[in-house]
């Protein structure tokens, strides 16, 4: 079943740069073992989490159409999610943090459509459909939490990254893939683990993106809610991990009250978390988010904001006090007395107002970059943007006039004014010159032979954030990850095991009752002595259908497996606990 993602109106609103991450969910790729893994985890979760998860969890499973018996299809999820104002898309593993959060801002849940291997049934560092579908989706049925998630995406997608953040993303993505893959080279895993450690230890000051990812981790992924003495689970990482969801409730995991301090608490995605944060309620999450947002360049702007976007070496936007937005890769700022007096981009740049590109100021027009003074004119109390038409005339800022504008900080603009552009409030936001020279002391910043000079108008920078003001201004369909998820290997031995899983599933569902279950158990004992999950399913059918001989043989085989594979003893016990009222382990 090739599931298309055009099954929810919200998805029609997604910009192309987000659509590049979406892949079709090929439901036929899910094997009978995959389905058995999903069913085991979900049965265990529903049984255990009904006691320790936030009350929204079980209700959310019903509202989002997530079945215990079958891996969910994107089509079915979208049809039902539409009723609560959300949608879902399938992606290939980790996607860049900005994109992940921007999807949330559009009320779209990103679901890694692969599923963990049986060997990683308790926990996988790679995002998978159990984590996303069974972890994230149910809780968004809670309206207050859903709004937090949307708002987080809206703010988080504007967070400014450092140049090292993307290196870290690629390294963690590769490590998660290798740890989930069959027969991965241990030396390669060691190499990438060392790379991740080296990056984590040499990130320097945390960027806005690194900090807000910390908030995301300690709330959306690993959050607890309620009191420190009696917390409940709502974080998707805990809801989808049958091992960690139990361990996190023990005294071995330190419980801390959730606060803004969590921005500086980093995490290791490959290990269980030594401490978790507890929020008293979902409303408190928004209070902390707003507290952090108030410190972001998105809201503070200024020289610090400009320096952040320069350090990011990535496409970003600054907004001036007039509302004019400059989007590009910022490479230089000239400062004076702690204030920016000139900014410069290199390469394609676009000018916008209120997230809409100004006509005539596309990346084609500003293909070589853009530079402009910021601030007030020297010796004049009235900023250009605050001048009335009469004031502008008095200072010769008028079409056809040759003018010299001396700005505070030593920037001088001298040329003939061609025209000006105004915003909706009538403030002048852009002035165009010909025969123009721009200097800073002895340094020439623009000269007449370069053509028309467009000068942005604004007395200060009020905002700086990641990405363009108008997403249509730039070709952002450029993401090519350096790693791809590794599919399970196919061979005759595995195919025969998959066939038996399907036969048992069909028997349980009443589709095929002529299957010889005893013969399947014989084959497992002889040819697949390490497999345990299918024998657990045979025990379930034997208990249901009162097949005492099969039940005893299956339990005895599982006892043998537990002795040989002590590391999975608890998983077998989990499975038997769900099936039998009382059994000796």
From TrEMBL:
Cofactor names: Fe(2+)
Keywords assigned: Iron, Metal-binding, Monooxygenase, Oxidoreductase
The keyword Metal-binding is assigned to this record: yes
EC number: 1.14.16.-
Highest taxon listed in the record's lineage: Bacteria
Entry GO MF terms: oxidoreductase activity
Span of domain Biopterin-dependent aromatic amino acid hydroxylase family profile: 1-342
CDD domains, sorted: arom_aa_hydroxylase
PANTHER family in the cross-refs: AROMATIC AMINO ACID HYDROXYLASE (PTHR11473), PHENYLALANINE-4-HYDROXYLASE (PTHR11473:SF24)
Protein family per UniProt: Belongs to the biopterin-dependent aromatic amino acid hydroxylase family.
Official protein name in the record: Aromatic amino acid hydroxylase
Source organism per UniProt: Paenimyroides ceti
């Amino acid at each position: 079943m090739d599931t298309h993602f055009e099954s929810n109106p919200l998805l029609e609103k997604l910009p192309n740069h987000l659509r590049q991450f979406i892949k079709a969910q090929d439901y036929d790729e899910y094997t009978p073992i995959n389905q058995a893994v999903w069913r085991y985890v979900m049965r265990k979760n529903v049984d255990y989490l009904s006691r320790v998860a936030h009350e929204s969890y079980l209700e959310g499973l019903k509202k989002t159409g997530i079945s215990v018996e079958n891996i969910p299809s994107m089509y079915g999820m979208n049809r039902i999610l539409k009723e609560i104002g959300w949608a879902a898309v399938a992606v290939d593993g980790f996607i860049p943090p900005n994109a992940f959060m921007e999807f949330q801002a559009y009320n779209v849940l990103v679901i890694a459509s692969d599923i963990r291997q049986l060997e990683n049934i308790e926990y996988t560092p790679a995002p998978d459909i159990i984590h996303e579908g069974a972890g994230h989706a149910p809780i968004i049925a809670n309206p207050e939490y859903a709004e937090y998630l949307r708002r987080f995406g809206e703010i988080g997608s504007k967070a400014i990254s450092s140049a090292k953040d993307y290196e870290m993303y690629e390294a963690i993505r590769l490590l998660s893939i290798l740890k989930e893959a069959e027969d991965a080279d241990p030396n390669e895993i060691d190499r990438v683990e060392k790379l991740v450690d080296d990056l984590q230890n040499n990130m320097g000051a945390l960027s806005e993106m690194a900090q807000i990812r910390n908030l995301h981790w300690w709330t959306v992924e690993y959050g607890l809610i309620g009191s420190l003495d009696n917390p409940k689970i709502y974080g998707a990482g805990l809801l989808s991990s049958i091992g960690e969801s139990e361990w996190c409730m023990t005294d071995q995991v330190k419980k801390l009250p959730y606060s803004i301090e969590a921005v500086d608490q980093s995490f290791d995605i490959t290990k269980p978390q030594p401490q978790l944060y507890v929020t008293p309620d979902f409303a408190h999450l928004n209070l902390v988010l707003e507290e952090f947002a108030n410190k972001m360049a998105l809201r503070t702007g200024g020289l610090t904001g400009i320096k952040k976007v320069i350090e990011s070496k990535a496409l970003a936007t600054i907004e001036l006090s007039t509302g004019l937005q400059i989007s590009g890769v910022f490479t230089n700022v000239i400062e004076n007395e702690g204030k920016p007096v000139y900014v410069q981009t290199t390469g394609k740049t676009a000018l916008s107002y209120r997230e809409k590109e100004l006509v005539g100021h596309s990346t084609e027009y500003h293909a070589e970059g853009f530079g402009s003074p910021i601030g007030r004119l020297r010796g004049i109390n009235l900023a250009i943007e605050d001048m009335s038409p009469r004031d502008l005339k008095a200072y010769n800022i008028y079409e056809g006039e040759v003018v010299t504008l001396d700005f505070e900080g030593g920037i001088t603009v001298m040329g003939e004014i061609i025209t000006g552009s105004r915003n909706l409030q009538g403030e002048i936001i852009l002035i165009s010159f010909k025969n123009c020279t721009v200097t800073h002391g002895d340094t020439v910043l623009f000269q007449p032979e370069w053509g028309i000079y467009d000068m942005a108008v604004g007395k200060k920078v009020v905002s700086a954030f990641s990405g363009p003001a108008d997403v249509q201004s730039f070709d952002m369909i450029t993401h090519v990850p350096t790693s791809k998820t590794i599919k399970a290997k196919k061979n005759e031995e595995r195919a025969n095991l998959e066939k038996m899983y399907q036969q048992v599933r069909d028997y349980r569902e009443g589709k095929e009752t002529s299957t010889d279950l005893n013969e399947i158990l014989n084959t497992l004992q002889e040819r697949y002595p390490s497999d345990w999950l299918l024998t657990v399913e045979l025990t379930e059918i034997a208990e249901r259908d009162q097949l005492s001989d099969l039940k005893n043989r299956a339990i005895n085989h599982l006892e043998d497996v537990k002795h040989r594979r002590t590391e999975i003893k608890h998983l077998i016990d989990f499975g038997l606990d769900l099936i039998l009222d009382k059994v000796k382990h």
